[in-house]
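DM from R.C. (forwarded with permission)

"hey, sorry to bug you on a friday — could you get me a structure for this? deadline for the figure draft is monday and I only need the backbone to look sensible"
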Amino acid sequence: MLSNIFLFTGEEKYLLHQELKRRTDGFVQKYGTDALLIYKTDDLSLESLRQVLYSGGLFAQKRMIVVYGLPLDGDTSNKLSASIIQQFSDEFMQRNGVIVAETILIFVSYKPDKRTKFYTFLKKELDPKTGIKEFGPLKPIELKQIIRQKSPTIKRSESVLDSFLAKTGPSLLHIQNELNKLLLWSEVSSSSEISEKDIDLLTFGMTEGNNLALFDMLFSNKQKALELVARLQEEGESWNAFVGTLYRGIKNWLFVLDCFEQNIKDSKIITSILKAHPFVVSKITKNIDMISRNKKGIISFYRGLIELDNDIKTGKKSDLNFWLDVKKMIHYLF
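My reply, with the result:
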């Protein structure tokens, strides 16, 4: 068992990095800043990493080494080249994961590919209780509890909390940033209560959160949906990232609708099959009748996005056309 090696994984990056910071800060306090080495994906040197992992000696020093991007990560922000991953993992497994005894090694991979030999090796060889730390998405009730703890003096209704989470999405990092804005507004305006109007005015969602908000508006308030798209354009939102999450959002809609049409209506079962956040499934199921009534429009919107995406990427259209064409589709289809 490799008791000095750990894998931090999971999409809740805020909690992951909080725990990582707690460990690295404690280590630095005890052994000094020179004892901590962090290898990010853009500056990882295999030769340097080999040196610190495998070269000990009689007077080896205590070290903590954090390596990002291993095992192979599905998160594009944490990607290493295939050749580096292959070289490192092959050598690591040939050595049976044995590194300098005085070294603590932490791998960080947000969405590790669990089909790889390296991930399988780590799962088998690391301590089953403490070796792999998974930081998965929190449930809506847990997110609300955290919001209440971080803003104890602020009054807000349950519907306001739902609206806030729909806007921000489930990312704790983004929730914290947007909550700070609301708390500052409350202090400046000498108000002890946050309303849905304050949320619309002050908070800005992550792309996934924007999609939840956009989808809520498509059937209930087309003008607000168009205004949100215009706002995203003004804020410099990446059209490519936005269309990608629109794809995922629409696929989620249609998947849940298909489940209901097959009489599969248990949210827990749908969540486990879809592998989406429970909050997302909850939002969709609440609007399932409206989604069913607008099924043809949703499919047409999806096809229109695919055509627009393809036209831009093949050079038939400029990416400057994206936002205008999305507005046109919303205007005519809903």
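R.C.: lifesaver. The mean pLDDT is 86.
me: no worries. The radius of gyration is 23 Å.
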